[in-house]
């Protein structure tokens, strides 16, 4: 399916502020960039690089005052995500080198403290995809999707204790529980067609059966129509804007459209 997505935001800097933005998706096996536009007002010199996770990063200095950042893209992406309940776990010694880093505990995913909880949740599910799906289903059924519960310091254990959170919190729980079972898992951020309410979105992927599969604990069924912007160990790796000085976020508007259909959300960060 072909999707048209936009993200428009305003920021205000009390003095010149260095930032690294992560707003441009890349073409890959599951998506292809048809066209894009990246606009800054006022315009500033920008340098782009690829980070250690393969994400496109834009480095710039936001001048004092208000700036508008806008990205627009048309992407060809999968209408349905791959599902394989029979995909088995991959032994650690057989994992690709680039998947090994996603076994380690990280800032928001303290998997080394969650082994017992993970075993309780998956029960007698077969090692691999079935275990990850059991985790996704448990999160969807037992945690409440609610704004205002978590903040920038909330990790997976905090979300389990609170019993509620938002998409990134749900994903952190899923990732940590997977890693506790020696299943590589990573955070994904991007766009989801017909997300309600519309916003930037986060989900997770797990490496089973020799490939990465998508899991989204905020949804009641597998859904395609996703545009991946970035991958990382957790939210610390995939912030859409990392500032190194005082910076106030203003309005952010996200839209994702298929031909003839529109979804929009306006909010203040």
Show the helix and strand layout.
Layout lengths: L1 E12 L3 E5 L9 E11 L5 E4 L5 E7 L2 E13 L19 H4 L14 H8 L6 H14 L1 E2 L10 H7 L1 E2 L1 H14 L4 E8 L8 E8 L2 E5 L10 E7 L8 E3 L4 E10 L5 E6 L1
Parallel strand pairs: 7-8
Antiparallel strand pairs: 1-6, 1-14, 2-5, 2-13, 3-6, 4-5, 9-10, 9-12, 10-11, 14-15
Helix pairs in contact: 3-5, 4-5
Shape: globular
Tell me the series of helices and strands, N- to C-terminal: EEEEEEHHHEHEHEEEEEEE
- Give helix % range: 10-25%
Strand order of the largest sheet: 3-6-1-14-15
Annotation, overall tally of beta strands: 15
Indicate the proportion of strand residues. 35-45%
Q: Please, how many helices?
A: 5
Please state the oligomeric state of the protein chains shown.
single chain
Pick out the low-confidence regions. 261-269
Structural class, from helix and strand content?
alpha+beta
Task: Give the termini separation.
Answer: 30 Å
Could you tell me the radius of gyration in angstroms? 19 Å
Give a verbal description of the structure.
With 269 residues, the chain is of the alpha+beta class. Helices cover 17% and strands 38% of the residues. The protein has five helices and 15 strands. It has helices at 97-100, 115-122, 129-142, 156-162, 167-180; strands at 2-13, 17-21, 31-41, 47-50, 56-62, 65-77, 144-145, 164-165, 185-192, 201-208, 211-215, 226-232, 241-243, 248-257, 263-268. Helix 3 (129-142) runs antiparallel to helix 5 and helix 4 (156-162) crosses helix 5. 39% of the residues are buried. The model is unreliable at 261-269 (pLDDT under 50).
């Amino acid at each position: 399916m072909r999707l048209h997505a936009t993200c428009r935001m305003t920021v205000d800097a009390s003095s010149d502020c260095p930032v690294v933005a992560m707003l441009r998706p890349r073409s890959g096996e599951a998506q292809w960039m048809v066209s894009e536009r990246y606009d800054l007002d006022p315009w500033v010199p920008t340098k782009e690089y690829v980070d250690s996770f393969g994400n496109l990063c834009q480095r710039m200095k936001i001048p004092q005052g208000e700036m508008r950042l806008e990205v627009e893209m048309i992407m060809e992406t999968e209408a349905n995500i791959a599902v394989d309940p029979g995909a088995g776990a991959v032994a650690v010694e057989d994992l690709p080198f680039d998947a090994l880093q996603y076994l380690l505990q990280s800032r928001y995913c303290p998997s080394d403290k969650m082994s017992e909880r993970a075993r309780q949740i998956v029960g007698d599910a077969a090692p691999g995809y079935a275990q990850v799906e059991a985790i996704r289903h448990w999160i969807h059924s037992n945690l409440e999707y609610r704004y205002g519960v978590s903040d920038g310091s909330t990790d997976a254990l905090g979300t389990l204790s609170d019993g509620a959170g938002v998409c990134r919190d749900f994903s952190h729980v899923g990732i940590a529980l997977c890693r506790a079972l020696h299943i590589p898992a990573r955070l994904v951020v991007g766009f989801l067609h017909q997300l309600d309410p519309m916003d930037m979105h986060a989900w997770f992927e797990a490496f089973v059966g020799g490939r990465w599969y998508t899991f989204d604990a905020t949804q009641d069924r597998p859904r395609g129509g996703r545009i991946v912007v970035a991958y990382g160990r957790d939210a610390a790796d995939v912030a859409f804007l990392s500032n190194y000085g005082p910076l106030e976020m203003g309005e952010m508007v996200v839209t994702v459209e298929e031909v003839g259909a529109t979804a929009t959300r306006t909010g203040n960060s």
